[in-house]
Amino acid sequence: MKLAFALAPVFVCLTLSAQQQSAPSEQELQKQEQSQRILGVVPMFGTTSRSDAAPLTAAQKFTLFRKSAFDPVEFPIFALQAGISQSQNEFPGYGQGAQGYGKRFGATMADSVSSNFFSNYAYPALLREDPRYFRSGTGPVRRRIAHALAQEFTARRDSTGRFSFNYANLLGAFSSGGLSNLYYPSSDRGFGLTMSRSVIQLGYGSLGGLVSEFWPDVQMRISRRKRTAVQTGDR
């Protein structure tokens, strides 16, 4: 009996050690989340399904900005957007030809990078707001759609873990929109350009929230069908 009492702390320590080794750390979980991609291609780095996720430090917010803004997949998207803009002769002050296309490509890239910088790093770090999208993951579809759209205007506070108005995202969109006046044609600059660029950024964010909310469900169904097909083929 005395031996059992003496060895009890050892068994407790071993059990706790095994649990700590099996449970992934917060950094490992964040690393997994920041490697998420749609169909293995389109980045979905700023999404978490964990309601208890630890807040990001300023350095981690910068890493999220860097990875999101400069992922290699973004560059073909910039190229496509610039091509569409040129084909429709948007911002005619840029002109046509290779020079006009290059200017449109640069403006598209600058829009994306500045939006990411302000909304994912600068303002979230300053105001201590979490720039990630927090999935609901369960419940009626309508409620989840409302949840996704609402998160464009609400953010989780680093200090309390509660959701409040998303000042960082709104300020980020308008700061990026205002900055665009430095590189768009002079004939297009002004209040209208600022508002249009800002609204476009918020629109993209709302669409991204819907994708982040429902894509894991779609991916799960695709995986389930593949497993079913494999099991059926093996019979």
Beta-strand proportion? 5-15%
Distance between the termini: 55 Å
The helix/strand class is: mainly alpha
Relative helix content: 55-70%
Which helices and strands occur, and which strands form pairs?
Elements: H1 2-22, H2 26-33, E1 37-38, E2 42-43, E3 47-48, H3 58-69, H4 74-87, H5 97-127, E4 129-130, E5 133-134, H6 141-150, E6 154-157, E7 163-165, H7 167-179, H8 191-234
Helix pairs in contact: 3-5, 4-5, 5-7, 6-8, 7-8
What does this structure look like?
The protein is built from eight helices and seven strands, in the order H-H-E-E-E-H-H-H-E-E-H-E-E-H-H. The protein is mainly alpha-helical. It has one domain (53-227). Strands 4-6-7 form a three-stranded antiparallel beta sheet. The longest helix is centred in the last third of the chain and has 44 residues, at 191-234. The radius of gyration is 23 Å and the shape is globular. Residues 3-8 have low confidence and may be disordered.
